[in-house]
Amino acid sequence: MGCNKKEVLHLNETENRKEVKRKFALWIKESTLDMVQNIYKEDNCGSRSEFIEKAIIFYVGYLSSNDNSQYLPNVVTSTLKSIVAESDNRMSRLIFKLAVELAMTMNIIASSQDIDKLTLTKLRGECVKEVKKLNGSFSFDDAYDWQKG
After folding, report:
1. Which of 45, 75, 85, 137 could form a disulfide with 50 if both were Cys (CB 3.0 to 4.6 A apart)?
2. Can you give the pTM of this predicted structure?
3. CA triplet 141, 146, 149: central angle to 5 degrees?
């Protein structure tokens, strides 16, 4: 590596300490340098050298890290968070609607049936066991079969 002794003080972002920068020869394909030229400003870099240095630090960190999740681009992370949040919102709305329908059904049945509290408590316990046994997949047919023996 041929070195030019031109030194520039630089505040290293990863270690928050002053570090001397060195100039050296870099052999790089023209097409790769064109890619750097076309994008370094989009990454808020002041120069191609700063962009290349950030890329090297990123890649070394990626290779040496057991947990590569910190190297996922922020846009991927934020997109995934948005997708999950929207899915949660939709599921919450659907569960709410289902709960309203279930409350209506229970009120209609409760108004027309003469069931004492003790029987209701026992039924709840049995239903918990049955739903657990079926992993939460309990249908009207299952209830019919259960009631008819």
Report:
1. 45
2. 0.42
3. 120
